[in-house]
Specification:
single chain; 5-stranded mixed β-sheet; elongated; two-stranded antiparallel sheet
């Protein structure tokens, strides 16, 4: 791939919030589970002509596959491109809102794997959830305004050390992850995983200035995370206290999905009916 394409990574528009952009933090706080996956796959967005400008596709695909331990094939990546063109009006040489790409990748996955659905949430760089998500071994989609100096800084010694990059010429989307070899702290040991494997010398590099770069809107504050959507079966399994459930079944008592919670009137009526039938059998 030409160096021009490396240092002119494709444009993204300013942040656009969609109805599907649910904030991770709200009054009913959502727990971020630990991601057990340890497998790594890497991508080069320039390998396929139709994806050479689709950095947001690869950043989202990377965050999703790492959560689900699933490597997208080239065929599947092109199917996501087809979906983006058909339903999100993306064109190969034009930008598309990051929130639309998040929607596109999530919807593609959930339709292809209805038994392994995922959900997406928006957070802010270096809020509490961002730090927790990094510690819990998740890839987080982040994006930034940049220029050739940022590229040069990252490739000099694979560490971003400058606090200002100017003039901005394009936007780019990547994944952030924390280095397990270091103690995570604000501004240090955040790894950026880019989408140019085998093309950039340092496709993965440290960004030790990410919070400062957020303050100057070099990095956009918003970031995205993928989490597994529990099926009803998973929810039941996670809520049931098995020994209590077995005991309840033996005694004809059963609190439907969760024996830890108080029984509803419907459940009480059912249990009374069961006892009546047992006594009169």
């Amino acid at each position: 791939m030409k160096k021009f394409e490396l240092v002119n990574q494709w444009l993204l528009d300013w942040n656009k919030v969609k109805k599907s952009d649910f904030l991770l933090w709200n009054e009913n706080r959502i727990e971020i589970p630990y991601n057990e996956n340890k497998n790594d796959y890497y991508y080069n967005q320039g390998k396929l002509r139709r994806t050479r400008n689709a950095c947001v596709l690869y950043a989202n695909a990377w965050a999703l596959w790492y959560l689900m331990d699933y490597e997208f094939s080239e065929k599947e990546l092109l199917e996501i491109v087809d979906l983006a063109e058909a339903e999100y009006w993306w064109e190969e040489d034009l930008w598309m809102y990051i929130s639309d790409w998040v929607d596109c990748v999530r919807n593609y996955w959930n339709k292809k794997f209805p038994q392994r659905k995922v959900k997406t949430f928006r957070m802010e760089i270096w809020d509490e959830d961002f730090a927790v998500a990094l510690r819990q071994n998740h890839r987080i989609v982040v994006w930034y305004k940049t220029c050739s100096n940022y590229y040069l800084d990252s490739q000099d010694d694979w560490v971003i050390e400058w606090e200002r990059f100017w003039p901005f010429k394009w936007w780019h989307c990547v994944c952030s992850v924390y280095s397990k070899n270091e103690q995570i702290s604000k501004d240090y040991w955040i790894l950026i995983e880019d989408n140019y494997d085998w093309t950039k010398e340092f496709n993965v590099y440290y960004n030790n200035k990410i919070s400062k770069l957020k303050e100057t809107w070099t990095f956009f504050p918003s970031a995205y995370i993928y989490l597994k959507e529990e099926t009803l079966e998973d929810e039941i399994k996670n809520n049931i206290d098995i020994p209590k459930a077995v005991e309840a079944m033996k005694n004809w008592f059963w609190n439907w999905l969760n024996p830890r919670q108080n029984a509803t009137r419907q459940e009480v009526a059912t249990m009374i009916q069961s006892l009546y039938e047992k006594v009169n059998s």
